[in-house]
Amino acid sequence: MNVFEKDKKYVAGTYARFPVSIASGKGSRLANEDGKVYLDMGSGIAVNTFGAADEELAKAVYEQMLSFQHTSNLYYSSPCASLAEALCLKTGYKKVFFGNSGAEANECAIKVARKWGEEKGKTEILTLINSFHGRTVTTLSATGQEVFHKHFGPFTPGFYSVPANDETSLAAATSEKTAAVMIEFVQGEGGVNVLSPSFVSELFRLAKEKDFLVIADEVQTGNGRTGRYFAYEHYGVFPDVVTTAKGLGGGLPIGACLMGEKVQNVLSFGDHGSTFGGNPSVAAGALSVVNRIDEALLSSVREKGEYIKKRLTGKKGVLSISGMGLMIGVKTPFESAKVAKACLERGVLVLTAKDKIRLLPALNVPYDVLDEALDVLLSVLEEGV
After folding, report:
1. pLDDT for position 32
2. Which of 290, 314, 346 is the last residue of a domain?
3. CB 369 within 8 Å of CB 28
4. Alpha helices per DSSP H over 68-196
């Protein structure tokens, strides 16, 4: 059997995969088993921060694995502690909990909010319509998209959603029972929707007035994706809790829940745990990623994001463009899945987000690769798919 047949026979059918088997890659170029090269404008859904076959990441992980690959959280390990230190020093947060994914990071944030609000009778968590916070039952409860809810109820109670950028609905929905409001500053799976500054400002005003936490889900937007280390920095605010994953590991499974001063000591012994959370090998790799996300790289991400928007604006088949940095949504008059398929056939891998094409290239994507990929996308749109 070839890889397609094996996958179909033995792997749970939870993914509508494109008919491509990736065999190798370097940077923003991937190759299938026949040697056909694809330009990667998805980076594993914002995961491969520095592209495929990142040598610094590989070296860090390899050296750690030669020392010891894993120890349980009953013991200390330097990579875990050093990664936590690097994240706190870079962002100003006080404590970090490590898990294996964005969903786990969000689970931790929810538990922090629930425990923080317990004595105050604050049990409700508000999220936004079109949000996406994970696929566990509780993070699905937080996700403001009914399409993901089918088949899996009953859900964890205490979650409610309001429209993004609707300040009146936000104010009406928050109360003395609100423990936290959980948001994505740029909704990824929801359509690359950017929160307005006025909405964010009102949220933080309400949080202070009504005494609830603000949780920033930066699973996709974090680690330089929007041109700042975290997307909240574009708004001049500081959430109480931040979750991140994806690009943090550069291709390895890791999630992190960062806690600010207000909640840094909420979790105590036995409140939460993860067998592989803070795994030394993964933490060593993540540390190599975090240490390379500097202002020079972030500036280039902002510049490349503006370059993409400039190249696409006003072109045939481009109705609108949204997003920040190298997290771009392109609305077209065509079905997004058909556009993605047509790009794939011409050697460019793009993603979709509802009715938009989503571009999430590696943060160090070269301009020549961007130009070649954008040429293909524009030709597909010009020809009408």
Report:
1. 97
2. 290
3. yes
4. 78-91, 102-118, 137-142, 167-173
